[in-house]
Amino acid sequence: MLSREEILAVYETGPEAVVAVVEGLQAQQAELMAQVQTLTVRMQALEARLNQDSHNSHKPPSSDGLAKLPRRRSRRQRSGKASGGQAGHLGFTLLPVAEPNQIVTHAPPQACPQCHTRLATAPSVIRERRQVFELPPLQAVVIEHQLLQVCCPLCQRVAAGQFPLEVTQPTQYGPGVKALAVYLHEYQQIPMARTQAFFTDVLHLPLSEGTLANARETCAVRLAGVETAIKQGVAQSAVVNFDETGIRVAGRTHWLHVAGTPSLTYYALQARRGQSAMNAIGILPDFKGTAVHDALQAYLAYDCRHSLCNAHLLRDLTAAGETTEQTWPKAIADLLLAIKAAVEQAATAGQTQLAPQAINDFCTQYQYLIEPALQANPAPPPRRGRQGRQREGPLRNLLLRLKNHAAAVLAFMHDFGVPFDNNLAERDLRMAKVRQKIAGGFRSWRGAEIFCIIRGYLSTLRKQDQNVLAALNSVFAGIPTMPRLT
C-alpha cells in the first residue's frame, strides 16, 4: 500500500511512472480476482458436496444420518387408492384347523348363576371353539445309531452293519442343526455370538464357533456345483442387472460384484472394481444380452446392449437442478418419468411395445431438451501446460452422458423386458452391506467367498419363492435343492 507522500512522489516523476504503478496495480488486481474465482469454485464444490444426500446423489439412505433433513418432494405419484388391503387381496388370516393336536375342555359352572339350580345332569346346548397356535417346548432330539455285529455259525466270521455316511463321530450335530445354524447366520444375518446364544437358550445346545464355521464351509463346498449352474443361467439370460460395492476383507477394501435377474443371483468377490475384475468373473466378456448398470465406464467397454439406471440419473438431475437456475434438469427428469408411466400403462394393457409414433415423439423431445442444454453449458477452455483429460464439470458430464448414451438411457422404452432402474442389483447387494455393518467385514478371503456362495443360493431361492430353510436341510442331507435356471 503506497502512502500519500509516495503517490505524490510518483506523480512528480512523470506520466510514465504513474502508468507503471497503475499497470502493476492492475496486474495485482487480476491475480487477486483469479484467486477469488478459484476459491469461489472450490467453495461451491464443497457446498454441493455438503448438500449431497440420498435424494440427489448416489449415496445410500443410511448415510443421511439422524439429523432431520428438509422435507423433499417425492417423485412418486399418488395412486388414488385407499390405504390398506386392496380389493382381491387374499390376505394371510389365521384359520382354524379341523384336527387340532390337543383339546382342552372347559366345564360350565356347577350351578345356574341366576336360579342356582344344579347343572350336573343338564345337556350341553352349544359348544364354542377357539384355537391357539402355540409352540411346544423346544429341545433337541438325540438319535443314537447302534452298530450290530453277528457271528457266522459256520465260519465264525463276524459281520457288522455300517453307520450312515453322515454319522462319522461318536457325538455330533445332525443336518437339521447345521442347516438352522447357517440359516440364522447367513440368511437372517444374526452374528455368530448371538447364533450361539440362540442355540444355548432355546435348544440347550452349546454350539461352538468352530462348529458353525465348519457348517458354513460344508454348505459352501456342497453348493459349488449349484453356484456354477446359477452363473451359467445368469450368463445366458436376456437381461442382467450388474452392480458392485466395496467390502472389507482381512482389513482391506475389496469389491463384491453381483449379476442378477428376477430369478437368479450370482456374487463374485474380487480385489478390484474395474474391467480386469469383470473379465476374471467371466460373465460380461461373452454376454450378448442387455446389461443394466450405473454407467461405470468399465461396463460400457463390453460389446453388448446397455441400459443405464434411470434412478441414478434422476438423482443426478435433482442435484443439477438444485445447483443451477437452469430448467433443463427438471424437464429431462419429468420426461423420463412420463416415458416410464407410458411404458407401465402399455404393459398393464397387455402391450409389448409402445406405438412407433409415441417412441418417435419421446425421442424428439429428449433430443430437443439436451441440445440447448449443452449449448448453455459449453466446454471449458483448454488447459495450458497440463496433461490429462480435460475436466468438463458435473453439469456438462451429465449432459454428455445423456447424449452419448441415449439408447442406453431409453432402453426401457424400446424393450419392456428392460427395467427402468438398477434397483434389483442394489437390493441384491443390500444384505452384504448389512453383514458389513453387523460384523465390520470378513476376517478372511475364504469367509467372504463362503458368504458369496451361500448368499447367492439363498437369494436365488427366495426370488423363486422356495423355502430357504428346507433347501439348506437338503444341502446337508447331500441332495441340494436345484433352483430353476431360466
Describe the structure.
The protein has 17 helices and seven strands. The chain has a five-stranded mixed beta sheet, with helices on both faces. Among the domains are: 30 residues; 88 residues, no CATH class. Helix 11 runs antiparallel to helix 12. A hairpin with a 4-residue loop joins strand 4 and strand 5. Helix content is 47%, strand content 8%. By secondary structure, it is an alpha/beta fold.
Largest sheet: 5 strands, mixed
Distance N to C terminus: 80 Å
Give me the secondary-structure category: alpha/beta
Averaging pLDDT over every residue, what do you get? 88
Share of helix, binned: 40-55%
Q: What proportion strand? A: 5-15%
**For the largest beta sheet, what order do the strands appear in spatially?**
5-4-3-6-7
What's the topology here?
Blueprint: H1 4-13, H2 15-50, E1 149-151, E2 158-160, H3 175-187, H4 192-202, H5 209-222, H6 224-235, E3 239-249, E4 252-260, E5 265-270, H7 275-281, E6 290-293, H8 297-300, E7 305-308, H9 310-323, H10 328-348, H11 356-376, H12 394-404, H13 406-409, H14 411-414, H15 423-439, H16 445-463, H17 468-476
Parallel strand pairs: 3-6, 6-7
Antiparallel strand pairs: 1-2, 3-4, 4-5
Helix pairs in contact: 1-2, 3-5, 3-17, 5-16, 6-16, 9-10, 10-11, 11-12
Structure characteristics:
486 residues; 47% helix; alpha/beta; elongated
How would you summarize this macromolecular structure in one to three sentences?
The termini are far apart.
